[in-house]
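Annotated sample (chain length 340).
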Amino acid sequence: MSSFREKYGRYSLYVLIAGLGVTIFVEILPFLGGLLGAVTIYILLRRQLWQLTEHRHWRPSLAATVLLAEAVICFLIPISLIGWMVAVKVQRVVVDPRSILVPVKHLVELVEARTGYELWSEANVRWLLGYIPRVGQWVVVGAADFAINLVVLLFVLYFMLTGGRRMEAYCSSLMPFDPRISRKVIHEIHLIVRSNAIGIPLLAVIQGIVAYVGYLVFGAPSPLFWGVLTCFATVIPIVGTALVWIPLALFMALTGSWAPAIGLTLYGTLVVTHVDNVVRFLMQRRMAHTHPLVTIFGVIIGLSLFGFMGVIFGPLLLAMFLYFVNLFKCRYLERNRICQ
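Output written by the structure step:
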């Protein structure tokens, strides 16, 4: 009888935990980007947190406030400014659709003059005018979602910083491993997070700066705007930065600037594209190596799950999944107690 009651209590607890967990997860899903962002920034700041609280003996609340200000200045303000700049460009197009119709019509006329193909039609104009409001709506919804998740990120990050040691000890106690393996898992997670949360944005910024220099040198229109778009394009699988500088070079060629267009094409092919390989080689010495396929498929998965924030969290989740699969293979299939 006692055995039955024990099993009944255990399985009932399983059902309650699973049911409540699924319910909470479904309701908190819109804020998942903010929660993952808080975890990511916490992992990046934890060493500074221990330095302030354990070596300099700061109060946890004071250390959390200082590190929160650092996160806002170093991470959140630059991202917000970039998003604001892109949103302003899109908003101008939504408010005044003619501002985009005029240059598009001019480009179409250039294509028709060079190739003889007629692309401008009333049907295409109606489609473009009908599509612009949807883009504006998407930008507004995305901006509101980003602002909400930003508030969630700051709120959660503060409490994670104030209770860092206790939180890590509790999470470690829930892991289904012995203490030695648990410490190794936490260490690997830390390396993976640093590799993705620092490596991917750093690579994007470096390629964007290199491309911006090329846009200035070869006289591309609005070089800063296209440089920022190049930063975002670095995370797009397969095509990457070519999605920006190839159409820009074609536009310059159609407008008659053949020499700068050829120069920009050569610069993009020989310099911008190969910066990726050089920076990855240098970062591998200080960070965990992330295979390019993990980055490519991680971005695809992350964009569908988390939107723009999935650029970082997608590769992170995929890399962690592969690590846990390898750990399972090592520990339980090969029965190797010392997993490398």
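Annotation: Residues 122-162 form the longest helix (41 residues).
Annotation: The chain has a mean pLDDT of 76.
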